[in-house]
Predict the structure.
Amino acid sequence: MLRSRIARYPAVAVLGPRQRGKTTLARSFSGRYFDVEQPAERVRLDLAWDALVDRRDLVIIDEAQSWPEIFPRLRSAIDADRLRNGRFLLLGSVSPALMREVSESLAGRLALLELTPFLLPELGNAVVDRLRLAGGFPDGGILKAGRFPAWQRNDLALMAQLDLPAAIARLRQLAGARGR
């Protein structure tokens, strides 16, 4: 499904919770990879931007929601060559910041693909009980049985500590910007 979307759109955004396989999936494609959550990676992407836009390589931008400044640049690059597909693969968590940037800057220019937990047809009937007890996330018990309770506690705690405060801060920032 991802390959067909890359072939049909200039950009594709793969969305999903943290640690669910987005980066692993993206790295299975040949392309130039940048984790823009890291300041050094932002600089590296910034320095290579003009050459990357002109090349035929897929540009993979991980944690896209952490660098909103990239979205107008993506829009400009896509609009300069609208008929060229398979240029950008964005990875990120479903967050208000990412969805706002996607809807404002990249509407009509990219396809969205949500990376879900493993589904029953992907795993087969032999794991129905494990899937029912452990969910469908790779690290949550599908790959290593018995890990689910501790994994779930840790995963929920991290989401509450990292993702929720970041989303609230971004919403407050947006509300403040609208009030000006």
The longest strand covers residues 11-15.
